[in-house]
Amino acid sequence: MKLYTFFRSSAAFRVRIALNLKGLQYESVPKHFARNEHLAAEYMALNPQGLIPALAVDGVVLSQSLAIIEYLNDRHPVPPLLPADPLDRARVRSMALAIACEIHPLNNLRVLNYLRSELQQDDDGVGTWYRHWVREGFRGIEQQAREFSAAGRYCFGDAVSLADVYLVPQMFNARRFKTDLTPFPTLVGISTHLESLPAFAAARPEVQPDAQ
Description:
The chain has 212 residues and is of the alpha+beta class. It is built from nine helices and four strands.
């Protein structure tokens, strides 16, 4: 397997966590955002969306972190990243999608660059935007985690799930943008525990081959 990645991409961070949890070996192929390597013709031929990550596996190239992770979970079901019960699966997906669909799209690099270049926002303005949408998204997930976490160590129940795979990269970015996390003690506690696990620690941006 080849993972087309960028060390600071939260979406690639998610896939690295999932690969590590599944115990799957892969080759890391960095594509640097600042140098627009993800928009080069060679990469666009592999992934027409021109986004990171992409995973070359089983003779195909998959894009979008959620699609990649669910494919890996289907192909390698142990350990499971989704509960067996349909209602519980929906609850886990709800938390993961709150990050993937409600927080991340508003705060990805393309949006932040547009704020700077087209809307003439300085770093303070961009940071204010970023922190606002993190807080808006985390507010609901905090309540869900309080309800569904068994002991404040995982987002749902007492085992790693898709929601945890999505939480840790978003928490990393929230700290990077100096978000006040005081209102989210449950999420902070869960993330702190998860970050101590080998599969999560090995996926952190600063330990990747292309880290700067």
